[in-house]
Specification:
The complex is a heterodimer of chains A (332) and B (315). Chain A has 332 residues and is α/β, with parallel strands linked by helices. Chain A is 36% helix and 21% strand. In chain B, 42% of the residues lie in helices and 10% in strands. The chains are: A alpha/beta (332), B alpha/beta (315). Chains A and B meet through α3, α4 and α5 of A and α5 and α6 of B.
Chain lengths: 332, 315
């Protein structure tokens, strides 16, 4: 990976960190393009692409509300040596054009026996926020994790929002970067920008503990940490292991963590059935980790997502619910 | 003049002889699975590819064998692909519906109806930034004109003046169903006006007519004039797939189609212009000889190695 600028530390929010990564990528990779609905002149509905159009001109542009055209053209441009970074405003909208992701992008390298590649990055955001409707709240990562040929990550900190995007765009395969809009305007943190970034994969231990391992990703990471802090007061040590990269998934690190505490809970915002939590549990089980109690999955129940905040809150895992279920897992 | 038409005849015979051989191999066993032949539609790829530049990007459909051949992809590698050989153009990973040979400006067939149209827009878009003079061509059938992705692509290309030529091979059937029953306005080329681009309905059984309109459309595209839609009227003489009972055809329909299919028509024209019959027949023999040799060579190649089945998924 080329290093075009020296590392420096800046105080950035999550959305600002994405913006900083985009600026860096546009500078260091002349083949990058940034486009999507309202990302150019308006700078994105969440302001994440602000300033790019001004700095990089025609390489940043607005498109019609046409997800198949956005994603399909990104596949075509990527096959021709560009490195498009396209935005799908809400993950729910990717469903309109799933063909271009699943049938097209994910197949390019394999069916051409490696003679063609599709190095595109799809940025999107997902999850529930108060008042969001059923078609603007879904957590769809499991859908994409079922598709060989795609890379998938879900950053939860400003540093990872920066690093993961840089890694994604440098990757020669299609990568889906799923951000979370509840994090865009969170507190500014110190972010190292401009230097080398960690390679794809790996885990982040967000809270230490030796009684139980909680594997989680996305915005749930911080609810799991909150739960771990609650339980620490009760003498239960919860190790929160965040897996910002879901493909490639660091099975080895997760198995090792579960082997240390011998208890496993997986927390995700997506509903439980067919969720990636099932895969995590299966991998740990298959690795033969001798767990002291059956592993548990904590996620939304298999229901549609209601608009009323009071109804949505009844479904989504929060710190209290996570703490309660993990407490039962440990204490029985 | 007759020289070019003889060249067209040879190019069309190469495609037809290939497709007929494919049909035989499919029925005899060496080729398995779904195969969609373009017999009767050869004039469109022959006319169109004649005026494409090497750097132009072509996206075809699963009825795209003729387009691959017209683009100059070696037929031995195509046969090998169909028979799962290691020497296949995709190393056996693509099959009939996913021939891909980027080194020949053939960016692939696609077995999802209409999916290539937005991808072609991207190839054209890339040309705007890489200093090339590339145009992109996307080919699809009449059925694809009712796919959302094609509408999105046409608007996308028009809105950004992208150098794309949309080639609709209207063979009157969307798979097994008459297109006339599936649309209110049967002249599909008329839709171009709605996107602010020119659209022409042309004789797709005449390679010269296709060449003429394609050259024009490419010129407009390269000059920054944006996309064009060419609705090429044609008819397939065979089923949608091998094994199609074709019970949707009217009595006598295939006989009428055979009288106006492109090879028969061109032969008739050449004869009328005084080209000796022996010279015309020699063209067919030459093509068939090439195809037979390529098929035999492909069949002699080893199968794709099962140990490589997991390769090429990621960088």
């Amino acid at each position: 990976m080329p290093e075009t600028s020296k590392p420096e530390i800046r105080k950035l929010g999550y959305g600002e960190a994405v913006n900083a990564a985009l600026h860096r990528l546009m500078e260091e990779l002349p083949e990058t393009l940034v486009y999507g609905e309202d990302v150019g002149v308006p700078g994105g509905v969440f302001g994440v692409t602000r300033g790019l159009r001004k700095s990089f001109g025609a390489r940043v542009f607005d498109t019609p509300i046409s997800e198949a055209a956005i994603l399909g053209s990104a596949v075509g441009a990527a096959m021709m040596g560009r490195r498009p970074i396209v935005e799908i405003m809400w993950a729910d909208f990717s469903l309109v054009a799933l063909d271009q992701i699943v049938n097209q992008a994910a197949n390019v390298r394999y069916v051409s026996a490696g003679r063609l590649t599709a190095p595109l990055t799809i940025r999107t955001q997902q999850g529930n926020a108060p008042g969001a409707c059923a078609q603007h709240s879904q957590c769809l990562e499991a859908l994409f994790l079922h598709v060989p040929g795609l890379r998938v990550c879900m950053p939860s900190t400003p540093q990872d929002a920066y690093d993961l995007l840089v890694t994604a765009v440098h990757c020669d395969d299609p990568v889906l970067v799923i951000e979370n809009r509840t994090l865009y305007f969170g507190a500014r943190q110190e972010v190292t920008v401009g230097g080398p970034v960690p390679p794809m994969g790996g885990v982040r231990v967000r809270h230490p503990g030796s009684d139980v391992t909680v594997v989680t990703w996305g915005a749930m990471t911080w609810r799991a940490v909150e739960a771990a802090e609650l339980l620490a007061g009760e003498g239960i040590g919860v190790e929160v292991v965040e897996t910002p990269w879901l493909n490639p998934f660091d099975t080895e690190a997760v198995v090792a963590a579960a082997g240390r505490t011998r208890r496993l809970a997986v927390v995700h915002e997506a509903n439980v059935t067919g969720g990636f939590g099932a895969e995590v549990v299966a991998r740990v089980a298959q690795a033969g980790v001798p767990l002291l109690a059956p592993p548990i999955r904590i996620g939304a129940p298999d229901v549609r997502m209601p608009a009323a905040p009071v109804l949505a809150q009844a479904l989504l895992p929060d710190a209290d619910r996570i703490a309660g279920e993990v407490r039962t897992l440990v204490r029985g | 003049m007759s020289e070019r038409r003889l060249a067209d005849l040879l190019a069309m015979w190469r495609i037809r002889a290939f497709e007929e051989k494919v049909r035989d191999l499919r029925l005899e066993g060496p080729i398995v699975g779904s195969v969609h032949l373009c017999i009767g539609q050869e004039a469109i790829p022959v006319g169109a590819c004649d005026v494409l530049e090497p750097e132009d990007a072509l996206y075809a459909t699963y009825r795209g064998h003729g387009w691959a051949i017209a683009r100059g992809v070696p037929v031995e590698a195509l046969f090998a692909e169909l028979m799962g050989r290691a020497t296949g153009v995709n190393g056996g990973r693509g099959g009939s519906a996913y021939f891909t040979a980027a080194d020949h400006g053939f960016h692939g067939e696609n077995s999802i109806v209409g999916a290539g149209a937005p991808i072609a827009c991207g190839a054209a878009l890339a040309g705007r930034f890489d200093g090339s003079d590339r145009a992109a061509v996307t080919v699809f059938g009449d059925g694809a004109m009712n796919q959302g992705a094609v509408h999105e692509a046409m608007n996308f290309a028009a809105a950004f003046d992208l150098p794309v030529v949309f080639v609709c091979e209207n063979n009157r059937y969307s798979e097994l169903t008459p297109i006339a029953d599936m649309v209110r306005a049967p002249r599909l080329a008329d839709r171009a006006a709605a996107y602010g681009m020119p659209g022409y309905r042309i004789d797709g059984n005449d390679a010269e007519a296709v060449r003429f309109h394609m050259r024009d459309a490419l010129e407009v595209a390269r000059e920054g004039g944006g996309p064009t839609l060419l609705e090429c009227m044609t008819e397939r003489i065979v089923g949608h797939y091998i094994g199609d009972a074709e019970n949707y055809r009217k009595p006598g329909e295939l006989d009428r189609i055979r009288r106006r299919e492109p090879i028969a028509r061109l032969k008739e024209g050449l004869l009328a212009d005084g080209v000796p019959a022996a010279e015309i027949d020699a063209v067919e023999e030459k093509a068939r000889g090439e195809i037979e040799a390529a098929a035999a060579a492909a069949m002699a190649a080893p199968y794709a190695d099962p140990a490589t089945a997991r390769e090429h998924l990621y960088a």
